[in-house]
Amino acid sequence: MSRSRIRVRGLRLLAIACDDRDAHHLQQQFQRLGVEACFLADLPGDDAFENTDMVLFDGDSPVLSHPDRELAWPALPRIVLTGVEAPSRLQWIIRQAPSAYLRKPVRFDGVMTALTLARAAADQQQGLQARIERLEERLRIRRFLFSAQLMLMKEFDLGEDDAYALLRSLAMRQQKTVEHFSLDLLARPEGYLRLAKDLLAG
Amino acid sequence: MESGKPVIPVGILYSVSGEYGVIGREMLNGIMMSIEQVNASPEFDFTLAPIVRDPGGVLDRYHDHCHDLLYRHGVKHIVGCYTSASRKVILPLIEGANALLWHSARYEGFESSNNVIYLGAAPNQHVLPMLAWLLREHPGDIYHVGSNYVWSWEIDRITGEALAATGHRLTASRLVNLGDTAVEGIIRDIAERRPKVVLVTLVGQSAYRFYHAWREAAEHDPYLASDTAIKLSLTLCEAEVSLVGKAALEGYLVSSAWFQTVRNDANDRFLEQYRTRFGDAGSPSVDSVAAWTAGQFLARAVQRCGGEQVEAVRAAAWRDELDGPAGQVRIDPDNNHAWLTPRLARCHEGRLDVFWEGDAPIKPDPWLTWVDLDALGPGAS
């Protein structure tokens, strides 16, 4: 998932609850980097993020961080501006799951790094998330694989390894994972068992 | 100057107008008295020329005034700030110019700049002593009401962590936005839940309204009127007691490195001089003393090193020790914060009477590195 080119031109960013001086410096730097930024006083509703690639927010803002408030962030990379290093503040920042941070007051250096690292971290996170979902799905249907294997062992009087090898060749012929093919086999055994018999005979 | 002594300009950046102008005024009094004493003393080979600016509690104005002091007036030393937000705004300017900020207010810690001398208490010097006393004398749950900003957030965390180890907890953390005075709902909640301990970290107008609203509600509520609830404050000072009125503050317990009722010769002198200089209208607070102390440390360091250059002044300040109104104070070279003696006082008839004080000054630990919050309770060393 790595991007070989480091360039942020065209990135569309929403900056939330930044103070005027930080916003001014950010805007200047964004312009140089070709980042299209929009500055808002508070977290907007979901619709506002439709054409947005990244979010940036002030981690010390009392507007965002009232204890009675849970922020619903969109699934986008987030950069937090940090000033206060007291643990209570850092605990709150952790809960917002930022992808990168930038120290306040914002100066001109560091903006490019934060944008790049935020995007890379979010890509990596997304990749990991997709992989976890795939693995969880496989884990979920893993028990069907055992049932399918057992079916072949009984039907053809095979040992564990041979039954698994047969299951795998059948799955490959159907261009499916072993797990997904096991589901099909258990749902409609007749046809697949005939095919298996042919394979074994062949 | 008729004295012919060299003049060293010093920037003074306290808000004497705006939200916390009452406290700002007492801090300004403290540093002005200190500078006047330095200038009148034959011990010093120079005079300090204060350049006073009032940012009015507005963050942008702190930035602009600080810039002006550094680059138009060429000051190397600035005494000022009260809130952490204002300090954070000017800190990059101070560091960029390699100047020195003499910061008098207590704060939540978790900062140590080489360009700041921190004369106010760090949390281990006033938050933890109060909690340790409370856990020892009145162990139990705590109801916290504060302002929605870093000071209260951090006190909330520290208190929660310290309580957890004793099997007790924060039963509420009610935070109101800065300047918000709608506190009646919280008072009703307190009256209903009848907590044994109420910790108040509200500041400014929210705090003042809270004290009054409690008193008004107490007219119809025996629990609120009684002294069953232990009320704690980490910010209340003498100037605020005068402002709010003694009736609403009777019984409050306050933690601070100094109170007017501290008994020592230096303090007696300080109070007398303050009264003479500012009249009965002035009521010095711990912040006035810290501002005064800043002036003394600055002047003594300049005298010792023979100039205003920041590195030399800072190093000279590290080697100094002042026997002042708050007892012995010195600057820790590890983190530029002051060693201070913790004290607890009870508000009675409008006076903050000291009822407990530490044996000696405590080393500042602004990052709470060397203390275990879960070992604060009884039985802990």
From TrEMBL, chain A:
It comes from the Bacteria. Residues 125-186 form the ANTAR domain. Pfam families: AmiR_N, ANTAR. PROSITE patterns: ANTAR (PS50921). GO terms for molecular function: RNA binding. This is ANTAR domain-containing protein. It comes from Alloalcanivorax marinus. The lineage of its organism: Bacteria, Pseudomonadati, Pseudomonadota, Gammaproteobacteria, Oceanospirillales.
